[in-house]
What does this fold into?
Amino acid sequence: MKYRFEILDIFRGLFAFIVVLYHLKTVFPNSISLNNEFISNGYMFVDFFFVLSGFVIAYNYESKISNYIEFKQFMVKRLFRVYPLHLVMLMIALMYVVFRIIIGFHFKPDAIKLYTVETFFTNLFLLNSIKFPNTNDLSWNYPSWSISAEVISYMVFAAFTLTIKKLNLSYLRTIVWLLVLGISIYWIHSLSNNYFIFLTYNNGFIRGLIGFFSGVICQQVFQKLTGKINGNFLITFTILEVTAILLIIYFVTSGNLFKSFGLIYDFVFLLSILIFSFEKGLLSEKIKKIRLLKEIGKFSYSIYMTHALIIIFASIVLKKIINKNYILDTIIECCLLLVIYYTSKWTYKNIELRFYNISHKPKIKN
It folds into this structure.
């Protein structure tokens, strides 16, 4: 029987909101509520998304890609899952840039370099996590670099899974995943001569591969342990869950100490996902009962993809009143979070679900 991993969905939603707060801080640099090390290092939770994605994809699809038709079906389903909302947000970003040009609301010299024909097409084809000439930063709807990294990870995973099945090497699959992870780690080390993994437009797809295949290996461990962990382990798993949360808080808050060895974050996230995947502790039990958190988990992809442009538009409209008064700033921050939540709820229902249902319609055989 397949698990739903409700608690992991909830964490994905919560951490998506932490990424939102991280980006909000650039607009409200003097905000007391945002001005702390945990929020300042909030971008690290993107690696949690990569690890979780590898875990869930491997859990659901590792046994379902055994021929070229299934390979194609897998890629189509994944693209239908992530691409429609990405395309919508890219088109909104394009309209925003064109509108600014038409009304003569000029960009700063550094900013205009982000909105070029080149970067538009790298975004359009989800190549924006690969380093291209004349690309010096994130562009258009900038969180989408990680979706590029995700799609590349999907392709690598599916290609290796298919190869393993074709060559009857299933008994070696864990070794294959460790090799892919090892090559990715070596690759990132060769670029920077250390283990700094926090790349984005500049080959962030390697960062994605490291996180994704850490998640695949996490899933292998989970499968091995599932049959062995039966019965009531409430106290043990409650201690493990609390420890996992404390580790995440400590390492993210202490980001400046560990950035040059960023691989430790993938390990911490891997360990946390493994612990919470069993959903046997008191934290899991209590958190899963909170309906709002379930909703946030459900809308996590929309939250992640819509928030950047909402923040950009809000900063332009409200630029004359923000950063003047702490109370007013706090009210605006809360209002923006509500706007992001309800916008995400709408895009989830009208874009994500619509295309998800299309990709999962059963095919009628003649």
In short: The chain has one domain: 6-359. Residues 6-359 form one domain.
